[in-house]
């Protein structure tokens, strides 16, 4: 996709039609306006989450081999969250102090914020985005509530676009380490160069820096732990001759695609089954997606810093690692295609750890009962507990032949730290009131749950 420069984004925003900001003179409220609550259907928010997923996929490619997808979902979800809670006032806005009128429609604000952010960054998708936006507004009763919601949604979107200016996206970051033993180099079959290295230096959404939670180094090449990692993945992650069971192979394939998209679908389903109102739905997506974005940024920082080679390189070149307990096999191939970036830490494991820790925290339980689909296997799995997802994620990347177990565990642990930071600093309740027609999340949000209630990483 073309680089979405800041000037282009601001230019697009400037050309959009603006309505009067809340608090300025506007049409006089009719009797019908004053007799009904402003539109706040959470289905509209879920619909625009689907549109965001489709738009991002259309512009990046459905199988883009990096975590960049999380960044865009983070931007959209943060804007939608601010648009909703800035009106309803139930949760602390994300890095914003502006408040909207209580008479505004949160639904109009949410769809406007989503439309405007997506249009700013993906202008090639304007025809479809505009058509969907018109359909969404047509479902909302005309009047002052809609107009105030649209105006506030525009402000929420503009705030996020402005906030993310000069954040390091698409900066020319290069990986320059020589291909020495233990260090990353392009891998078969395509031998692609390091993809999206700029993610490792990008300004995070929640954290203070990309390296705030950088883990310690991976096992040394000469260590027994490194040999264990190599020999395990050599036995369990191969395309042929593997010791995997059929279920283990299916698990590797199940988590072999776009994890961010899998989580979007699972959380939309969760919100429907638990009848979450618009504020709780917005909070769920914002907390999950901003945490996921920072997990990607942190993982890419670690990849840039340590540059550990991938299992396929380690196995092909084991005769150069100086470890007597590893043996080279030039013909070994992984079950999954190796992504074009270093091994340590696992981005999938970091995202899962961060998202599940954050979501369990705001919902007050690790018993999420998530229905997670997979386009890779065309199946859906129900995971009762978040820990079960973390375990399968760690195993899946080993069984797929693309990550050492040490990289997966370190990724999951790092994700937990990001989740804890998110819970301590963002998305916190302001008061325990529930607007008419809304239903709160299934657990108390007045305080954070104890650590024992939060997901952990298996060992």
UniProtKB/TrEMBL annotation:
Q: Which residues form a coiled coil?
A: none
Which Gene3D superfamilies does the entry link to?
1.10.606.20
Question: Does Signal show up as a keyword for this record?
Answer: yes
Keyword annotations from UniProtKB, A to Z: Signal
Q: Which domain of life is it from?
A: Bacteria
Stretches of Low complexity bias are at: 440-459
Annotated signal peptide: 1-25
Keyword Signal attributed:
yes
Q: Identify the stretch(es) annotated as Disordered.
A: 433-459
* PANTHER family recorded: PEROXIDASE-RELATED, PHOSPHATIDIC ACID PHOSPHATASE TYPE 2_HALOPEROXIDASE DOMAIN-CONTAINING PROTEIN
The protein's name = Vanadium-dependent haloperoxidase
Q: Species name for this entry?
A: Streptomyces flavidovirens
């Amino acid at each position: 996709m073309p680089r979405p420069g800041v000037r282009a984004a601001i230019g697009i925003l400037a050309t959009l039609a603006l309505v009067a900001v809340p608090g300025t003179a506007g049409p006089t409220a009719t009797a019908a306006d004053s007799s009904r609550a402003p539109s706040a259907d959470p289905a509209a928010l879920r619909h625009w989450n689907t549109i965001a997923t489709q738009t991002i996929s259309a512009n990046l490619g459905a199988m883009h081999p990096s975590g960049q997808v999380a960044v865009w979902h983070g931007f959209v979800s943060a804007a939608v969250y601010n648009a909703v809670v800035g009106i309803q006032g139930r949760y602390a806005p994300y890095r914003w102090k502006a408040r909207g009128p209580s008479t505004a429609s949160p639904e109009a604000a949410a769809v406007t914020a989503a439309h405007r952010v997506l249009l700013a960054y993906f202008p090639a998708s304007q025809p479809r985005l505009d058509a969907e936006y018109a359909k969404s507004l047509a479902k909302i009763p005309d009047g002052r509530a809609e107009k105030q919601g649209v105006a506030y949604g525009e402000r929420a979107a503009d705030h996020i676009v402005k906030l993310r200016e000069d954040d390091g996206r698409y900066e020319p970051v290069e990986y320059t380490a020589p291909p020495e033993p233990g260090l990353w180099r392009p891998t078969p079959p395509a031998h692609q160069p390091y993809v999206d290295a700029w993610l490792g230096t990008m300004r995070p959404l929640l954290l203070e820096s990309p390296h705030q939670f950088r883990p310690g180094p991976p096992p040394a090449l000469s260590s027994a732990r490194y040999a264990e990692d190599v020999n395990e993945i050599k036995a369990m992650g191969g395309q042929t001759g593997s010791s995997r069971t059929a279920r283990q192979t299916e698990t590797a394939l199940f988590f072999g695609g776009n994890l961010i998209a899998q989580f979007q679908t699972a959380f939309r389903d969760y919100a429907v089954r638990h009848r979450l109102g618009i504020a709780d739905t917005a909070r769920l997506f914002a907390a999950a997606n901003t945490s996921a974005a920072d997990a990607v940024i942190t993982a890419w920082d670690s990849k840039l810093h340590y540059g550990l080679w991938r299992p396929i390189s380690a196995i092909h070149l084991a005769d150069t690692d100086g470890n007597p307990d590893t043996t080279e096999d030039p013909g070994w191939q992984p079950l999954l295609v190796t992504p074009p970036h270093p091994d340590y830490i696992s981005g999938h494991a970091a995202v899962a750890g961060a998202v599940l820790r954050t979501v369990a925290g705001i919902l007050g339980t690790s018993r999420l009962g998530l229905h997670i689909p997979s386009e890779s296997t065309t199946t859906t799995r129900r995971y009762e507990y978040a820990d079960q997802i973390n375990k399968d994620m760690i195993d899946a990347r080993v069984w797929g032949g693309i990550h050492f177990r040490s990289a997966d565990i370190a990724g999951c642990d790092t994700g937990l730290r990001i989740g804890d930071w998110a819970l301590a600093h963002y998305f916190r309740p302001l008061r325990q009131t529930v607007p008419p027609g809304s239903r709160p999340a299934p657990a108390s949000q007045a305080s954070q749950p104890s650590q024992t209630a939060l997901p952990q990483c298996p060992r």
